[in-house]
Amino acid sequence: MTSTAAPFPEGFLWGGATAANQVEGAFAEGGKGLSIQDVMPHGLMSPPTDGPTDDNLKQVAIDFYHRYAQDIALFAEMGFRTFRFSIAWSRIFPLGDEAEPNEEGLAFYDRVLDQCEKHGIEPLVTISHYETPLHLARTYDGWVNRELIGFYERYVRVLFGRYGHRVRYWLTFNEINSVLHAPFMSGAIATPKEQLTASDLYQAVHHELVASALATKVARELAPSARIGCMVLAMPVYPLTPDPDDVLAALQTDRTNLAFGDIHVRGEYPGYYLRHLREAGVELTITDEDRALLAEHTVDFVSFSYYVSVCETADASARTTGAGNIFPGVPNPHLQASAWGWQIDPVGLRIVLNQFWDRWRKPLFIVENGLGAKDELVEVDGVPTVLDDDRISYLNDHLVQVAEALADGVDVMGYTPWGCIDLVSASTAQLSKRYGFVYVDRDDDGSGTLARYRKKSFGWYQEVIASRGASLRR
Ligand code: BGP
Fold it and tell me: How far is it, in rounded angstroms, from Cα 271 to Cα 275?
């Protein structure tokens, strides 16, 4: 295989992605406090419980807390150059509003970083991934309260102080735009969604945006070589028909997501966003200091998740609802869907990459993508494995489109498919919605040995990485 046949550049950050609450388990070990996930045993659609319940798979998850060394070695075996994981805020600040961090929590991530270093894997750290300390939700109503900015700043100061010399790539908030749709999971807002006013919701958004800018500022002070990215949920919105009213409706829905990148990259609220707030009767408290922070501390790169595209229409009678990631959309008649109803659209990834590059001219990092599917463990030559050809096709077809985007001139830093090892789903809290290259023996009822097995996609991805994409099927 000649290097000229390889469509991906040297230095491309191949890897995989996880989040603490979906892999670590050990929910009450090492001095960890409760996080909002500890009262979300059934995922997004059910209201939070009063306290932890035994039916919450995340209490053990896949036991990454005790098995991280073995798991990172498996990632290294695939050839990962980077590994995206999140730090559980409630391991570092169990309540969230304490003055001093929990040393045991900090030491755990030292050990994870040691393993990454041992294998030459560049860590990619999400600072906040749907796991805010529960106390901040229950006592302060989460990000609605301006005080959260100070607690988050204290947390990031500890992280950059402790790990800033070892971690180059940081993401401030996972899928920051999802707070509009999942206020508890994404914004730790305890007020039920139906009772939340638009003003409180957008004030929470504002506080997160200011906190994100503040994290960038702190990084410049404490970890000057760190590169800071925002992380947005990308879900391209196509007009359902060429009717100009549909095209405009699609633009407007798309902008509800694009606004977050616009603010992180350009450092100010765009006019269309201000108009939307005005028309929704939202009055925000924005201080001069907030404006200065947003303007002065913009991001180095834009990262995003991409699973699904949707359509939009201005015609209420044509509007139907299909599944999306976190929030729904109008289904596309040209696309097939996964078993969980998410429509599969590899070309959409090329569209998003081009749209973001044209719009922001910032390096782009695909930090989530993948197929959630039911897997069946079988034996091949006496070795347990999963013949996950559908997952291979999904990833292959998306990577082909990334290669196309690279050929279009888009600056793509890397690709970390979601759930590189099976983990607990964010939306449904199931383990049977599997994404991994590595199968974990644990079922939705909590049974299983937690043993790890390489799926067929494991060897496939290993070859893709080794050949820099030359082995992709076009
Ligand atoms: C994103 C989240 C992840 C992850 C992924 C897959 O929205 O950032 O945490 O879980 O989606 O979604 P799910 O787990 O619902 O299949």
Answer: 6
**CATH at 33:** 3.20.20.80
Model-wide pTM > 0.85: yes
Cα(12)–Cα(462) distance, integer angstroms: 14
Q: Which domain holds residue 423?
A: 13-466
Q: Are 431 and 443 in contact (CB under 8 A)?
A: yes
137 lines ligand 1 (CB under 6 A): no
Ligand 1, atom 3, residue with closest C-alpha:
426
Interatomic CA distance for residues 431 and 449, integer angstroms = 13
Report the domain count for the chain. 1
Is 471 part of any domain?
no
Q: Which of 175, 208, 312, 404 is catalytic?
A: 175
pLDDT by residue for the chain (474 residues), tens only, comes to 434 589 999 999 999 999 999 999 999 999 999 999 999 999 998 999 999 999 999 999 999 999 999 999 999 999 999 999 999 999 999 999 999 999 999 999 999 999 999 999 999 999 999 999 999 999 999 999 999 999 999 999 999 999 999 999 999 999 999 999 999 999 999 999 999 999 999 999 999 999 999 999 999 999 999 999 999 999 999 999 999 999 999 999 999 999 999 999 999 999 999 999 999 999 999 999 999 999 999 999 999 999 999 999 999 999 999 988 999 999 999 999 999 999 999 999 999 999 999 999 999 999 999 999 999 999 999 999 999 999 999 999 999 999 999 999 999 999 999 999 999 999 999 999 999 999 999 999 999 999 999 999 999 999 999 999 999 999
Q: Which residues pair with 303 in a beta bridge?
A: 231, 365
